[in-house]
Queue: 2 jobs
Job 1
Amino acid sequence: MQEKYPDAVYLSEGPSSCSMGIRSASRPGFELVIVWRIQIDEDGKVFPKLDLLTKVPQRALELDKNRAIETAPLSFRTLVGLLGIEAALESLIKSLCAEENN
């Protein structure tokens, strides 16, 4: 994703990072962070776990009457379940950086 969206996506710890940040140049102060971890059960089955964290200005939280920011982590988990990891990440990036990608 970083290669495809270099202005929006960053890996804070480089290629071995366990999180990915998404920023929008047109929305200063808004940042989404995807944190991932891998769980392996006793049978060796692998389960990727992704969580979405939001970093937004306090004023945006006050204006968010529909609670979209508050419910974003749960909505992201639902999106991952429906679309898969890669498509969900791409959808998230495109929605945050819509004007920049046009």
Job 2
Amino acid sequence: MLSIFKSIPTHMDYKGQKLAEQIFQGIILISAVIGFVYGLLIQQFGWTVYIVLAGFAVSCLLTLPPWPIYRRNPLPWQPAVAEPSGEPIQKPQDNTKRKKHK
């Protein structure tokens, strides 16, 4: 059952994060303007809040999951360096005396 969740991609590249942020802010701004104008026309502040919350829900649905549109520019990672087989490398010890602070 857990293997199903491991197959779901959970990453976004940097350009995808920027795009998601721009979409999120745009939807919030547009819904706030529409909600403000509509609420002003019908003199009901509650409708303004409902419209802004609906815009928030739509923007979350469009930007929070890592959709393929946000994974178009993956970073080219360097290949992993293989560790030499044998004994692990130890750091040289520092034999100098350290001063004690008083």
